[in-house]
Design goal:
The chain is of the alpha+beta class. Strands 3-15-16-22-19-18-17 form a seven-stranded mixed beta sheet, with helices on both faces. Strands 26-25-27-28-29 form a five-stranded mixed beta sheet, sandwiched between helices. A three-stranded antiparallel beta sheet has the order 5-4-12. It binds adenosine-5'-triphosphate. Adenosine-5'-triphosphate binds next to strand 16, strand 19, strand 22 and helix 10.
């Protein structure tokens, strides 16, 4: 039987495509790996996720300032930040198929390794003395292993009808990154692969014109620290926040929009006095965790992961990730939604050294100069959107009563209200059109749906997460009331037609965390 968690991701992917949330990028040309497009509903949902983040991180805190830096920055930025020399993943390649994997993401494997010291052709005198190993995870895979080895000598070494030479075998246990999980074939030694995407500025395609697409938005904030501080006259502690695209040439983009090569980040750099950093780190950790809960993710699907000291990035004093229980097959199923790091004074200090412009702060009260410490909650817009979708996906009822729904928080739902005339006569469509226009006028994103049975129309709205449906029926024509149906409870309430817009707007406002 299929794993129900995996079934969920398959169902959601199909709903996302069918209803216009998320599609593969450049689909008509066969798609582009690691890139995704957001359709009409997906674009709204992601925009709502970003607005909810902005409201919580920027608007609600008087001392956090918004920012929007460019994607392409001076190449020195990446030298100073350490990305040019150190932003690498260990890449391994299958010697037979050329498939590439991130070594640290491969699962541990056990079994019997068959090692050959070469092969010779059975039709001519060609031979190869290169050794080659294949992993057989169980007895039944012995023939498969031999077939893979023969294929290697035939395809990669040009040996026609090869006979394998010198078979040796030995057992391995929990070995990581030696064999291709798909065909058992030997992988290359790991080499470091820089994840930054390169391009050229201007007409000359030489090293002097080489620039990088930013792999994180944070550096655009650090280099503008002085500009923002001066313009806002901000006093420590204060923050600078921005959302925007980042690019990483991920070796193995996978799991729908979880790991992509172009993605959106929502980052805050919060500057504080050294010595107060640990307290601020705790505050931001708790506040950011609460944000996911407030916008509807179930507590049991969220957890903190504390990075062990020996695995921290070179600049970080401590780092905690907020993780979500993603229904992906690969272990671990917990996946990072957001990293919250104490970056110390590393960034301002190194940009100061590389640029020659000291990026420090003068405390007018204590008359001290110091380089602020930075707490960085760094979230992914696409990963958050995916987690909200997955957590909202639900199936209820049986048989004819069965319905699929997205229990999205009303603030995140792409469509807030649907206006549905019960029948296409007695003036109901005209009343519906008018009400629909009033919602749009009030900036409440609405849909009008005139066709199909009322049950089918409710089902369409449930499936895209619309929190409320308003039915225009006989009572509307006779006594000026409409029926408001709640997506989650299916409860219905009568409301005066001329108060409907106000009623929904108030509900929306009240739902805001
Ligand atoms: P991972 O370990 O999953 O590669 P990371 O630790 O490199 O992530 P950060 O550098 O901390 O990620 O980036 C902050 C956030 O940006 C992540 O928590 C995630 O939400 C998002 N993010 C990073 N890389 C990707 C990606 N390839 N695709 C989608 N989102 C990403």
């Amino acid at each position: 039987m299929a794993d129900p968690r995996q079934e969920k991701i398959a169902l959601l992917t199909s709903l996302a495509k069918r209803r216009g949330f998320i599609y593969q990028s450049s689909e008509i040309y066969g798609g582009l790996r690691g890139c995704w497009d957001y359709g009409p509903l997906g674009a709204l949902l992601k925009m709502n996720v970003k607005s909810a983040w902005w409201r919580s991180v920027v608007t609600k805190h008087g001392n956090v300032y918004g920012h929007d830096s460019s994607i392409i920055m001076h190449p020195k930025v990446w030298e100073a930040s350490g990305h040019l020399s150190g932003f690498c993943d260990p890449l391994v390649e299958c010697l037979l198929s050329g498939s590439r994997f991130r070594q640290d993401q491969l699962e541990a494997e056990s079994g019997t390794v068959f090692e050959y010291c070469g092969a010779k052709s059975t039709v001519n005198d060609k031979r190869s003395d290169d050794s080659y190993k294949v992993l057989a995870k169980n007895k039944g895979e012995y023939d498969k292993a031999k077939k893979t080895a023969r294929e290697f000598y035939s395809v990669k070494r040009g040996i026609e009808k090869p006979e394998l030479l010198g078979e040796k075998s030995y057992e391995i246990k929990d070995s990581v990154g030696e064999f291709n999980p798909e065909n058992g074939g030997q992988l290359s030694e790991a080499r470091n692969f820089n994840l930054m995407l390169k391009t050229f500025l201007g007409p000359a395609e030489d090293s002097a014109a080489t620039v990088y697409l930013r792999p994180e938005t944070a550096q655009g904030i650090f280099v503008n620290f002085d500009n923002v501080r001066q313009a806002t006259r901000a006093k420590i502690p204060f923050g600078i926040a921005q959302t925007g695209k980042s690019f990483r040439n991920e070796i193995t983009p996978k799991n729908f929009t979880f790991r992509t090569r172009e993605f959106e980040q929502m980052e805050l750099e919060f500057f504080c006095k050294p010595g107060t950093d640990e307290e601020w780190h705790e505050k931001w950790k708790n506040e950011r965790m609460q944000w996911y809960i407030d916008y509807g993710i179930k507590k049991e699907n969220l957890r903190f992961y504390e990075h062990p000291k020996e695995k921290l990035a070179h600049y970080a004093k401590s780092c905690s990730d907020i993780e979500y229980l993603f229904p992906f097959k690969a272990q671990p199923e917990w996946g990072e939604l957001e990293g919250i790091a104490n970056r110390t004074d590393f960034d301002l200090k190194t940009h100061g050294e590389f640029s020659g412009k000291i990026l420090s702060y003068f405390d007018e009260e204590t008359k001290e100069h110091y380089i602020p410490y930075v707490i960085e909650p760094s979230a992914g817009g696409d990963r958050a959107t995916l987690a909200f979708l997955l957590d909202a996906y639900a199936e209820e009822g049986e048989g004819d009563e069965k319905r699929v729904l997205l229990k999205l928080h009303p603030c995140l739902a792409p469509v807030k209200v649907a206006v549905l005339p019960l029948v296409k006569k007695e003036g109901m469509p005209e009343i519906a059109e008018k009400l629909y226009a009033e919602f749009l006028d009030e900036d409440v994103n609405a849909q009008i749906d005139i066709n199909a049975s009322i049950g089918k129309r409710y089902a369409r709205q449930d499936e895209i997460g619309t929190p409320w449906c308003i039915t225009i029926d006989g009572d509307t024509v006779e006594s000026g009331t409409v029926t408001v149906r709640d997506r989650d409870t299916k409860e219905q309430e009568k409301v005066a037609l001329n108060e409907a817009v106000d009623y929904i707007s108030k509900k929306l406002r009240k739902s805001r965390p």
